[in-house]
């Protein structure tokens, strides 16, 4: 424990970061690399934030394990692998997930030590200009001084009016990552990224899954054509969808849950996953002590280079405007610190990729066709399916396609949308292309190894000019 937490003296730092999620801990490391004295305040015992502890990482571990379980029962035989009788060991699956989380959070602690970053365990809040108060929860509140503060407190699960969260049978993503057994019937409220990822996990492990969505389609922010394709694939996998449904309530009754929605009979189920989004976590941050006011959506308004209305106070990640993505928060943390120290720091938000880790995966970067039409931007579209691709056939995963949108006059890439095997990795190529202002022709003329899934990206680029080779 740092001496400052024992109350012996008032510690002073060049930078204090409040929050040790991907944005916060990366900002702290980069600042330390650039020579600042840095402290990071985190209320949870483990570092890494929601992403590492109860979000991105554990969900990906569960997605991978559930996919392998599903493959044993459904696709192994086609590969000539006869396994006979097999069973699910959910406890071991959870233990593997927890082990991965522990290794990565311990890794962040190691990086803090390596870079001489002081870690404070407790709730951090602003206590006036140049001061941060830390409430450890089991001791006296202490204050530290700092020249700069970065607020990187992330977000928390959003709830719905009428839905009585008991954070067990009716809970959010954290609870859905640790169910003690497979629900007989899981109702997911929200057909967004989190709802579809975790709904897919429990469907593959044997649950009946019903997804309720207020909007008339799944994944409302996705390119419309790609969203329809995804909906069709998920229905084939056995997910049940009720779209255009307004949930009015949910409650626990005995060992079951009852979900109510307008225009339909109440649904009785075993568990409910509320996945209607996340809200910025700004509670108790002491923003009023430096004159910062939240916007109408509870976010911290930022100006150029992530500065707030208070001198020396910056905000990054989920507490600010923009998509709630771990990698977006990381890039903002780096850009914020580098501008602070060097005068340079920039992010091209058009080049930030999105990924949904369902099976098949979904990924995109840049603009959708709907956005281009609304903006009146002329474009050409080229697409190519995974079905003819040799690598996809060898993997036994041929659902999906890649679609590239390029400016009609300049051929500059404006957006790329993918559904298919391992597109979470394929999206990096086109994210770099967008960052460097590449054209569809640039990708089409670049040699792609054969046989690889990346050849589908090349074919889609060729298709923009109407010259795909293998179709």
How does this structure look, described?
- This protein has 471 residues and is an alpha/beta fold.
- It has 3 domains: 187 residues, FAD/NAD(P)-binding domain (3-Layer(bba) Sandwich); 107 residues, FAD/NAD(P)-binding domain (3-Layer(bba) Sandwich), CATH 3.50.50.60; 114 residues, FAD/NAD-linked reductase, C-terminal dimerisation domain (Enolase-like, domain 1, 2-Layer Sandwich).
- Helices cover 32% and strands 24% of the residues.
- It has 13 helices and 22 strands.
- The strands form 5 sheets. Strands 1, 2, 3, 4, 5, 6 and 17 form a 7-stranded mixed β-sheet that branches. It has a 5-stranded parallel β-sheet with strand order 8-15-9-10-11. It has a 5-stranded antiparallel β-sheet with strand order 18-19-22-21-20, sandwiched between helices.
- The longest helix has 25 residues.
- It starts with 11 loop residues before the first strand and ends in a 7-residue tail after the last helix.
Topology (elements, then pairings):
Elements: E1 12-18, H1 22-33, E2 38-42, H2 49-54, H3 56-74, H4 90-114, E3 118-121, E4 123-126, E5 131-135, E6 142-151, E7 155-157, E8 170-171, H5 173-176, E9 185-189, H6 193-204, E10 208-213, H7 224-236, E11 240-243, E12 247-253, E13 256-261, E14 267-269, E15 271-274, E16 278-280, E17 313-315, H8 326-342, E18 354-356, E19 361-366, H9 369-375, E20 379-385, H10 390-395, E21 401-407, E22 413-420, H11 423-435, H12 440-444, H13 455-464
Parallel strand pairs: 1-2, 1-6, 2-3, 6-17, 8-15, 9-10, 9-15, 10-11
Antiparallel strand pairs: 4-5, 5-6, 7-16, 12-13, 13-14, 18-19, 19-22, 20-21, 21-22
């Amino acid at each position: 424990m740092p001496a400052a937490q024992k109350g012996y003296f008032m510690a002073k730092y060049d930078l204090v970061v409040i929050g040790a999620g991907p944005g916060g801990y990366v900002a702290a490391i980069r600042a330390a690399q650039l020579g600042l004295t840095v402290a990071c305040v985190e209320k949870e015992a483990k570092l890494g934030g929601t992403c590492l502890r109860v979000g991105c990482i554990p969900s990906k571990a569960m997605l991978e394990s559930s996919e392998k379980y599903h493959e044993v029962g459904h696709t192994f035989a086609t590969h000539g692998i006869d396994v006979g009788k097999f069973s699910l060991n959910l406890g071991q699956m959870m233990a593997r997930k927890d082990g991965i989380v522990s290794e990565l959070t311990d890794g962040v602690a190691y990086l803090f030590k390596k870079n001489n970053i002081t870690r404070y365990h407790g709730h951090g809040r602003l206590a006036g200009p140049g001061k941060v108060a830390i409430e450890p929860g089991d001791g006296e509140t202490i204050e530290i001084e700092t020249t700069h503060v970065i607020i990187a407190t992330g977000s928390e699960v959003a709830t719905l009016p009428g839905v009585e969260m008991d954070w067990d049978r009716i809970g959010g993503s954290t609870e859905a990552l640790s169910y003690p057994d497979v629900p007989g019937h899981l109702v997911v409220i929200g057909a967004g990224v989190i709802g579809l990822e975790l709904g897919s996990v429990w469907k593959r492990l044997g649950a009946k899954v019903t997804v309720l969505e207020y909007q008339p389609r799944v994944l409302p922010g996705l390119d419309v054509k790609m969203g329809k394709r995804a909906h069709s694939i998920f229905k084939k996998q056995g997910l049940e969808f009720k779209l255009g449904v307004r949930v009015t309530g949910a409650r626990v009754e005995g060992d079951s849950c009852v979900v109510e929605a307008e225009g339909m009979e109440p649904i009785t189920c075993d568990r409910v996953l509320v996945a209607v989004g996340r809200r910025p976590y700004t509670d108790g941050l002491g923003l009023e002590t430096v004159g910062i006011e939240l916007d109408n959506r509870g976010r911290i308004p930022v100006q150029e280079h992530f500065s707030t209305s208070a001198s020396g106070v910056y905000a990054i990640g989920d507490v600010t405007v923009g998509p709630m993505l771990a990698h977006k928060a990381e890039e903002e943390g780096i850009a914020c610190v580098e501008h602070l120290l060097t005068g340079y720091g920039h992010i091209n938000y058009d080049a930030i990729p999105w990924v949904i880790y369902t099976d098949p995966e979904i990924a995109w970067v840049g603009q959708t066709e709907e956005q281009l039409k609304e903006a009146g931007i002329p474009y050409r579209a080229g697409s190519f399916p995974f079905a003819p691709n040799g690598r996809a056939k060898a993997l036994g995963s041929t659902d999906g396609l890649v679609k590239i949108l390029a400016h009609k006059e300049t051929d500059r890439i404006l957006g790329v949308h993918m559904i298919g095997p391992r597109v979470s990795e394929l999206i990096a190529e086109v994210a770099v292309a967008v960052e460097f202002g590449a054209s569809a022709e640039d990708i089409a003329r670049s040699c792609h190894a054969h046989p690889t899934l990346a050849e589908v990206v090349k074919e889609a680029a060729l298709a923009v000019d109407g010259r795909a080779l293998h179709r």
